[in-house]
Amino acid sequence: MTRDEVIAKWNSMQPRERDAWVGETVLNMKPEYNENLNWHGWTTGERRWSSSIPNFTKDISAAWELLKKFKTYQITYSESGFSHSGMKYRVIVGRNQDVAYSDIETEAICLAALIAAQGEGIEGIEE
After folding, report:
1. Cα(7)–Cα(113) distance, integer angstroms
2. For residue 121, which phi and psi values (nearest 5 degrees)?
3. Mean pLDDT of the chain, nearest integer
4. What is the DSSP string of 38-107?
5. What gap in Å lies between CA 21 and CA 28, rounded to an integer?
6. Rounded-to-integer distance, Cα 12 and Cα 126, Å
7. pLDDT tens across 73-115, in order?
8. CB-based contact 57:19 (threshold 8 Å)
């Protein structure tokens, strides 16, 4: 997906849908089922969440887990882009093209991580 496609999809989703997309795409989280094939939680193979997917878009500690997947990242709080439309969080992960802006720090982290994971910036992800 292109950066614009990622942003358009993000804007069409509710917060918990965004959390699931981030978990599945950036952390490679998969639904886990018990022996009776009932939903049991989420797993990445190395870590398990027994209830629901973390609130990446609202919980800063969960959002920081995303940043740990990248070799480099930068977070700033400044005037946004060329429009100077007010103060926003700017998050860059991996390459300079993998950048996102938001009024909310956790959402900027999530969106930048998705842009990097969906585009050519995937080489920035730690395996």
Report:
1. 12
2. -75, 5
3. 79
4. -EEEEE-SS-EESSS---TTT-HHHHHHHHTTBS-EEEEEEE-TTTT-SEEEEEEESSTT-EEEESSHHH
5. 10
6. 28
7. 888 888 655 555 677 888 888 766 678 888 899 999 999 999 9
8. yes
Which single residue is written with the structure tokens 């429009």?
Answer: 83
In the chain, the amino acid numbered 74 is Q
Joined tokens for residue 92: 């860059």
Distance CA 66, CA 114 (A): 10
Block residue for tokens 């103060």: 87
pTM: 0.77
**20 in Cβ contact with 26 (< 8 Å):** no
Residue type at 53? Answer: I
DSSP states along 9-29: HHHTS-HHHHHHHHHHHHS--
Distances (CA, A) of 115 to 34, 43, 102: 33, 22, 14
Sign of CA dihedral 52, 59, 117, 70: negative
